[in-house]
Amino acid sequence: xxxxxxxxxxxxxxxxxxxxxxxxxxxxxxxxxxxxxxxxxxxxxxxxxxxxxxxxxxxxxxxxxxxxxxxxxxxxxxxxxxxxxxxxxxxxxxxxxxxxxxxxxxxxxxxxxxxxxxxxxxxxxxxxxxxxxxxxxxxxxxxxxxxxxxxxxxxxxxxxxxxxxxxxxxxxxxxxxxxxxxxxxxxxxxxxxxxxxxxxxxxxxxxxxxxxxxxxxxxxxxxxxxxxxxxxxxxxxxxxxxxxxxxxxxxxxxxxxxxxxxxxxxxxxxxxxxxxxxxxxxxxxxxxxxxxxxxxxxxxxx
Length: 302
Ligand code: EPU
Fold this sequence. Notes:
By secondary structure, the chain is of the alpha+beta class. It contains seven helices and 21 strands. The site of uridine-diphosphate-2(N-acetylglucosaminyl) butyric acid has 16 residues, from strand 17 and helix 6. Uridine-diphosphate-2(N-acetylglucosaminyl) butyric acid binds near residues 217, 236 and 297.
């Protein structure tokens, strides 16, 4: 079968499974950092069809990865041989008492605000964190004293390895600093969040306060993948990088933000190579000066 015929066959199959086939998408368009080569994307509109989609990919020998909002990934310039699965937005949040059932594709900030409007609080710090609820769960996203794992009661996943759906109670998931115990083969589909009663006006004020702090300390108007390195226990990566005078250091179009030293921003058509070189430079300087090995917070896809 020619390449084109194969593409059309996959596209037809995916349409039958209620999914969109987007071949060779430039990942500059699908990531907040705006770098990365091409990859094929399958946008899944009906997660109940995942067993069929996975079986098809398995049959074709095509590896896959989940793409959430693309706000915490750095994709290499060569692109990826794997297909990226992305859950389409559309499903609404369901509320029962002080619990919210949130589809994984929901934008995290939207989820925080929707809950707040129903007088439910507990996620204010996360309001300005970019990305989807699914991505936030995988990374146990956190900011201003809140980690999403703190408010999760259950998570519905599709286990890619077994082809089974399961709702996992939170006591069976480990949420750690920027890490959760889901396996790479688990597709997070939805989360049940348990929140506190709190008047909307009060929560909104807290959200605004966090957003003010973020605006003052982080380069949110520039393209980035958020903090590049995890904070080593008892240390602040940003503070250490700043102390070494590395703010403003530039490789190609990538720059260490002058506003927050743990952010690398894509200021002028940066490549993934530029960003990776800057990361290597920072790692080497921190190791030399502080004897600490920085661990990546951003997920590098090679
Ligand atoms: N600092 C500097 N120079 C800098 C940056 C920070 O001196 O360039 C100092 C600050 O003044 C402060 C300390 O370092 O005394 C900590 O800085 P900040 O409050 O900005 O927090 P952070 O530890 O750098 C963490 C998370 C952020 C999250 C903020 C707010 C990590 C790696 N980073 O940053 O998360 O938004 O706290 O809660 O855990 C992300 O996950 O991508 C992210 C940005």
